[in-house]
Design a protein that fits this description.
alpha+beta, 13 helices, RNA-binding
Length: 427
RNA sequence: UCCAGCGUAGCUCAGUCGGUAGAGCAGGCGGCUGUUAACCGCCGGGUCCCUGGUUCGAGUCCAGGCGCUGGAGCCA
């Protein structure tokens, strides 16, 4: 029987399998907190009610030992909403000797060294549950809107935004890189299937050491044929609303355990404010910041802008100068790119980046040259402009940043089961 | 790569003015019939990150190194 299903079984005899989460007790009474992955339940052993062997097992069982326990489900005498198990039989099936993670506090580095065990804690359990719901919400959102999932390759032959940020590897005598975006492949797929998305791991070799960066993270990247920037922003807004609504609906318990304030999440409803980069610069100047046109928005600037709004804000039309070669320029203002970022509230920053793609062959060729990229490597990509070029747009959503935001976590490292960071490749 | 902080028991930390090492948790033993990171008593447990320097004497001060953490840049 699963612990999550015990609530409706008061009065019934059940058998559980799981691990000892924590233990308290006295001479004649033991309280075993047992977890099985679905939940945690207090199992009470009274010396007077069980055979000597069972009492002995209860007295000696250590934290995280695997065990089998039988007993009667009954109301918790102290906590009205909970049940407990009155134990009749207990068997330790595999002992756990000196479990490293004690019930007291630990430092992050120690916990990360024991990440494989840390995952067993209530808090990590809650975070991974929220992550799972976010992934499900993303898939459901696209699948019910007629999108086709198209997996992008992990090995790629070339850089799409410069090689310094890519992990390099040997590939049968050639150099290959680990993908930093599936976008270029999604553009090809959009020409085949209209509305597509990829969802997979992405790799960045930048030596970033911040609470927002991982070397390996998961990204969902939709790409839609015949969609413009306005449609792209609407798609991003709809997606975020769907994700937040799903998590609020399905993960109340987990959010409560994480002590997440729900009010800011409940405000995440369309329409999101949309401001241009130029307006964002004005906002910064009003706030006393000496920003000028052409400056990139750093982390502090993003926070300042997003603090002006009570929900995610979309910033669009950045100067094309600093943007990737594939971004289409605004026909009414060539110094601007038809791109957009979505900034999450509460200081969580950029969670989406995207925009409309350059669909003019000559313009794209010129941009590739201007960025000193090898044109031959992009020949297949240019084919998409040679054979029935089409306006199209898309974006990338960072899953870990979204998990951190919805869970209210200060750092992305707990949002992924086994984080890969500048100084962490293990476990 | 740059800036800042930290490094003491298995873990989390304290350690005053430079005088020779301390608490809680974890582990062991004992006590307690309703505990909630249970509690109470006792016990064992140290390469004070490393190297060098100053000093009669360094966990403490100085220099260099290593490691970790946070931030910047870059981005999702």
């Amino acid at each position: 029987m699963e612990i999550s299903k015990l609530a409706g079984l008061v009065g019934e005899r059940v058998r559980l399998t799981g691990w000892l989460y924590n233990k308290r007790g006295s001479k004649k009474l033991a309280f075993l907190e047992v977890r099985d992955g679905t939940g945690v339940v207090q199992c009470t052993v009274a010396q007077a009610d069980v055979p000597d062997a069972t009492w002995q097992a209860a007295a000696e069982v250590t934290q995280e030992s695997a065990l089998e326990v039988e007993g009667e489900v009954r109301a918790h005498p102290r906590r009205a909403s909970e049940v407990e198990l009155g134990v009749t039989s207990l068997r330790v099936t595999a002992p756990s000797v000196e479990y490293p993670i004690s019930p007291k506090e630990h430092g992050t580095d120690f916990l990360m060294d024991h990440r494989h065990l840390w995952l067993r804690s209530r808090r990590q359990h809650a975070i991974l549950g929220v992550r799972h719901s976010i992934v499900r919400a993303i898939r459901d959102f696209f699948d019910t809107r007629g999108f086709t999932l198209v997996d992008a390759p992990i090995f790629t032959p070339n850089a799409c935004e410069g090689t310094s940020t890519l992990f390099e590897t040997e590939y049968h005598g050639d150099t290959a890189y680990l993908t930093q975006s599936g976008q270029l492949y999604m553009e090809a797929a959009a020409a085949a299937l209209g509305k597509v998305y990829c969802f997979g791991p992405t790799f960045r070799a930048e030596k970033s050491k911040t609470r927002r960066h991982l070397a390996e993270f998961w990204m969902v990247e939709p790409e839609v044929a015949f969609l413009d920037l306005d449609g792209d922003m609407q798609l991003a807004e709809d997606l975020l609303c769907a994700i937040v609504a799903r998590v609020l609906d399905a993960r109340r318990t987990e959010l409560a355990l994480l002590e997440r304030d729900l009010a800011p999440l409940e405000r995440v409803q369309g329409p999101f404010p949309r401001i241009s980069y130029r307006q964002a610069i004005d906002v910064l100047r009003e706030a006393g910041h000496d920003a000028k046109f052409g400056d990139d928005l750093g982390a502090d600037e993003e926070t300042l802008v997003s603090q002006r709004f009570d929900r995610p804000v979309i910033v669009h039309r950045y100067p094309s100068e600093a943007k990737a070669f594939y971004m289409k320029r605004d026909p009414t203002a060539p110094e601007l790119a038809l791109c957009m970022d979505v900034l999450a509230p509460e200081g969580y920053g950029e969670i989406i980046g995207g925009g409309q793609r350059e669909d003019d062959l000559a313009a794209l060729e010129a941009r590739i040259d201007a960025h000193h990229l090898p044109r031959a490597a992009f020949d297949w990509y240019l084919d998409l402009r040679r054979y029935g070029s089409f306006p199209h747009a898309g974006f990338g959503l960072g899953v870990e940043r979204t998990v951190a935001w919805l869970c209210g976590l200060p750092h992305v490292r707990e949002t992924i089961p086994f984080p890969r960071m500048l100084n962490r490749l293990a476990p």
